[in-house]
Design a protein that fits this description.
The chain is of the alpha/beta class. It is about 35% helix and about 15% strand. The chain has a single domain, classed as Carbamate kinase. The protein has helices spanning about 30-45, 65, 70-95, 115-125, 145-155, 185-190, 200-210, 225-230, and strands spanning about 10-15, 50-55, 100-105, 115, 130-135, 160-165, 185, 215, 235. The protein binds uridine-5'-diphosphate.
């Protein structure tokens, strides 16, 4: 068995990643179960895992012009959507025998603990998977920013951005067949080449705090463990 390269990680999952491609259902239980099993696998290697889930499969508050809903109001709706995803992820993890805690950046004491940084760290030290829901608790931000912020706060070694593509490419691989994947890339190169790894706020937070990012395909079972073992899966930004 390989030794894990990272001791404490923050896994960022987009809301859409919980959804089957092309489906209108917000969740695909098979996908959530696969994610839960992969997360379980790395906790068994002794890795401390925190998870931030997005909400895009249910609601995004960004587009005031289309929705007619004031931006800040819609953003709070989006944050509540992340809570639903966090609860789904928690249910699946617990079902397969993983101890979890769900912490919310918006008070919802019947279903989640409030976000308390030191308590989150304590849970991680005890081997519990901590799910951070409701983003940063503030409108005008994204869950990528929540992921970067929480990762920095809990002193994670790395942020793992689980997506449906296997890394960062020179161009959009679906449009350009000559596009190639970067194995490693610097923060600065991402900015100069206009590669959108995360939104700028989230990305800057990582860069300023020297928090490395790995973008990888979370939908391939076992890939998360390969990332943890440092096997070159995905793209490392540092
Ligand atoms: N959101 C917010 N503040 C945050 C995090 C999220 O206002 O700190 C809102 C925002 O409206 C966003 C929605 O929640 O569109 C869902 O989050 P996001 O779009 O980041 O989800 P993902 O794309 O990862 O599924």
């Amino acid at each position: 068995m390989m030794l894990p390269k990272y001791k404490r990680v923050l896994l960022k999952l987009s809301g859409e990643s919980l959804q089957a491609k092309g489906s209108n259902d917000p969740f695909d239980p098979k996908i959530i179960e696969q994610y839960a099993r992969d997360i379980k696998g790395i906790t068994e290697l002794g890795v401390q895992v925190a998870v931030v889930v997005g909400g895009g499969n249910i609601y995004r508050g960004m587009n005031e012009a289309d929705s007619g809903i004031e931006r800040a109001h819609g953003d709070y709706m989006g944050m509540l959507a992340t809570m639903i995803n966090g609860m789904a992820m928690q249910a699946m993890l617990e079902k397969i025998g993983v101890y979890t805690r769900l912490q919310s950046a918006i008070q919802m004491e019947q279903v989640a603990e409030p976000y308390i940084r030191r308590r989150a760290i304590r849970h991680l030290e005890k081997g519990r998977v901590v799910i951070f829901a409701a983003g940063t608790g503030n409108p005008y931000f994204t869950t990528d920013t929540a992921g970067s912020l929480r990762a920095v706060e809990i002193k994670a070694d790395i942020i793992l951005k689980g997506t449906r593509v296997d890394g960062i490419y020179t161009a959009d691989p679906e449009k350009d067949p000559t596009a190639t994947r970067y194995e490693k890339i610097s923060y600065q190169e991402c900015i100069s080449n206009n590669l959108k790894v995360m939104d700028m706020t989230a990305f800057t937070l990582c860069m300023e705090n020297n928090l490395p990012i790995i973008v990888f395909d979370m939908n391939k079972p076992g890939n998360l463990q390969s990332v943890i073992e440092g096997s070159g899966v995905g793209t490392l930004v540092s």
